[in-house]
Amino acid sequence: MVKPRVPFELNDIVEMKKAHPCGTNQWKIIRMGADIRIKCMGCSHSVMMPRSEFQKKIKRVIDHADE
Ligand SMILES: [Zn+2]
């Protein structure tokens, strides 16, 4: 069974499978390309990772940017 991909867009607020050590599990997508950069909403720390890795680590989209 193929797991459906979570659709995401730039500026979306997402929840990851693992919370940031600061205790927050809300991240904003601030850059999209071959790599994805997300920023922790709690402490503003940002992390960059390959798109394939991000796709594995994302749990769900909390807020779509254009809603
Ligand atoms: Zn944090």
Descriptive report:
The chain starts with 12 loop residues before the first strand and ends with a strand. Strand 3 (35-40) and strand 4 (46-50) form a beta hairpin. It has a domain at 26-59. A five-stranded antiparallel sheet has the order 4-3-2-1-5, with helices on one face. The longest helix is centred in the last third of the chain and has 7 residues, at 51-57. The chain has one helix and five strands. It is globular. With 67 residues, it is mainly β. The structure holds zinc ion. Zinc ion is lined by residues 20, 22, 24, 40, 42-43, 45.
Main attributes of the structure:
single chain; 67 residues; 5-stranded antiparallel beta sheet; binds zinc ion
Largest sheet: 5 strands, antiparallel
Distance between the termini: 31 Å
| Number of discrete helical segments | 1
Order of adjacent strands in the largest pleated sheet: 4-3-2-1-5
How much of the sequence lies in strands comes to: 35-45%
Spatial shape:
globular
Helix content: 10-25%
Question: What would you call the structural class?
Answer: mainly beta
Number of strands: 5
Write the layout of secondary structure elements.
Layout: E1 13-16, E2 27-32, E3 35-40, E4 46-50, H1 51-57, E5 58-63
Antiparallel strand pairs: 1-2, 1-5, 2-3, 3-4
In short:
This protein has a domain of 34 residues.
